[in-house]
């Protein structure tokens, strides 16, 4: 890590050089693309992002769960350099190469279940989800896709149909792909008191059977922990209940592990916490230490049900991204980053739970995917303004945290799994003050 692992504020936030860039941006970049923070990045390393004015921020967002191995992790940087010097692109569909095969071998080894597996590599999480649905439809000959309330699966037309939240993702962009049916998720804070995971699964299944019928369903796509929907951990028994029903009806269970995968929740994949073995797993984000790469991995008989040429894309499984993924995967395993995620939870959760801030409705999450849902004190009414204010106060003090949630009222923590204790404690202190102040 070449950057000092400490906060430093040299100017106002944003500083003068960031403000200059913001002015240029306004003339060049669509207003449809927004940024949480107004500071422009010059460098990043480990758990620190340094802006163009020399301010150093503690990064508790990891570029939305991407730089789990740390920003610019040395192994990733070296692998990228070596691969870029060898060749940057040939297109795997034209002239294949070992790095793609090696990433698929690693995915087969690391994803849940010891059945025979195959993979396809693509460029983004949304593209992975699209391809999982293609595979499920081709393999089952059925059309319907089941998704959960509060789900987020991406911004392409099909994945927008699968995503729950209208603003900002869907509004004005329809019509969306058809044959997508939404069923209730397990959301312990907001479900009826005492509802078990099994009961929440039965509720979802009853909705699916009423709306579409199990025999028409190709795929049931679930995030094992709802990501953009608010870091909601389902009640125990919910995922196994859905998995059992899917298996009984020949429905392909797709675990969307784009955000939860690669050690983020304290296991290599979040499904492992409940012993669920999905038929297909989608991965992206943390897979390649910051390079764009995504994959669909699953049962060989499903993945190989697709005709030759049915899957692919010009850039899918780019060799530089694959080399980065192999280096990142080496770090996940060698450095026990799943253990690191559990250690982060053990450090952060008790502090947030003990805080007693009136706006905190719930502290939840798994591993280093932790969140605080903010509500109007004494109620469950979501308080998105409080969440925005926490983010603003933290940024002003040199700490980057993100929001999520169907109502935008959840502050989420996604630190790099390599973050040092001292840096984490320092950032937590800032977050605690912000939570107490709203
Ligand atoms: C669970 C999940 N699926 C899919 C996506 C879409 O990934 P991408 O932004 O790489 O298309 C995301 C992104 O946040 C996600 O969290």
From TrEMBL:
Cofactor(s) required for function per UniProt: pyridoxal 5'-phosphate
Residue stretches in coiled coil: none
Source taxon at top rank: Bacteria
The protein, known as: (S)-3-amino-2-methylpropionate transaminase
Pathway given in the UniProt record: Amino-acid degradation; 4-aminobutanoate degradation
Entries under Gene3D superfamilies matching the protein: Aspartate Aminotransferase, domain 1 (3.90.1150.10), Type I PLP-dependent aspartate aminotransferase-like (Major domain) (3.40.640.10)
Listed InterPro entries: 4NH2But_aminotransferase_bac, Aminotrans_3, Aminotrans_3_PPA_site, Class-III_PLP-dep_AT, PyrdxlP-dep_Trfase, PyrdxlP-dep_Trfase_major, PyrdxlP-dep_Trfase_small
Annotated signal peptide: none
Keywords: Aminotransferase, Pyridoxal phosphate, Transferase
EC number: 2.6.1.19, 2.6.1.22
Keyword Transferase applies: yes
Catalyzed reaction equations: 4-aminobutanoate + 2-oxoglutarate = succinate semialdehyde + L-glutamate; (S)-3-amino-2-methylpropanoate + 2-oxoglutarate = 2-methyl-3-oxopropanoate + L-glutamate
Molecular-function annotations in GO: 4-aminobutyrate:2-oxoglutarate transaminase activity
Family: Belongs to the class-III pyridoxal-phosphate-dependent aminotransferase family.
């Amino acid at each position: 890590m070449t950057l000092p692992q400490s906060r430093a504020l040299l100017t106002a936030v944003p500083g003068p050089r960031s403000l200059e860039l913001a002015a240029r941006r306004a003339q060049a970049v669509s207003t449809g693309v927004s940024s949480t923070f107004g500071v422009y990045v010059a460098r990043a390393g480990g758990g620190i992002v340094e802006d163009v004015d020399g301010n150093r921020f503690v990064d508790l967002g990891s570029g939305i769960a991407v730089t789990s191995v740390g920003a610019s992790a040395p192994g990733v940087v070296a692998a990228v350099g070596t691969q870029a010097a060898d060749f940057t692109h040939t297109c795997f569909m034209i002239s294949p190469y070992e790095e793609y095969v090696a990433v698929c071998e690693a995915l087969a080894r690391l994803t849940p279940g010891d059945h025979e597996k195959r993979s396809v590599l693509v460029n983004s999480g949304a593209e992975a989800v699209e391809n999982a649905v293609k595979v499920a439809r081709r393999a089952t000959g059925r059309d319907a896709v089941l998704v959960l309330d509060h789900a987020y699966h991406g911004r392409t037309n099909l994945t927008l149909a699968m995503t729950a939240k209208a603003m900002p993702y869907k509004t004005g962009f329809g019509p969306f792909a058809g044959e997508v049916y939404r069923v209730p998720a397990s959301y312990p804070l907001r479900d009826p008191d005492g509802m078990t995971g099994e009961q929440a699964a039965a509720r979802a299944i009853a909705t699916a059977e009423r709306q579409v019928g199990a025999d028409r369903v190709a795929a049931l796509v679930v995030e094992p922990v709802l990501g953009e929907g608010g870091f909601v951990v389902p009640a125990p028994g919910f995922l196994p209940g859905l998995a059992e029903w899917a298996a009984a009806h020949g429905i392909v269970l797709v675990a969307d592990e784009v955000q939860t995968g690669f050690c983020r929740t304290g296991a290599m994949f979040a499904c492992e916490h409940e012993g669920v073995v999905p038929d297909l797993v989608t991965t992206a984000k943390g897979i390649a230490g910051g390079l764009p790469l995504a994959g669909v991995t699953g049962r060989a008989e499903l993945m190989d049900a697709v005709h030759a040429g049915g899957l692919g894309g010009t850039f899918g499984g780019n060799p530089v991204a694959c080399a980065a993924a192999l280096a990142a995967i080496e770090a996940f395993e060698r450095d026990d980053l799943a253990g690191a995620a559990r250690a982060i939870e053990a450090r952060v959760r008790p502090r947030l739970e003990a805080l007693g801030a009136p706006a905190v409705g719930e502290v939840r999450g798994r591993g280093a995917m932790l969140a605080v849902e903010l509500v109007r004190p004494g109620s469950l009414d979501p308080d998105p303004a409080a969440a925005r204010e926490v983010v603003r106060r933290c940024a002003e003090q040199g700490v980057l945290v993100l929001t999520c949630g169907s109502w935008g009222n959840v502050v989420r923590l996604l630190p790099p799994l390599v973050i040092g204790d001292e840096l984490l404690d320092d950032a937590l202190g800032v977050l605690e003050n912000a939570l107490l102040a709203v």
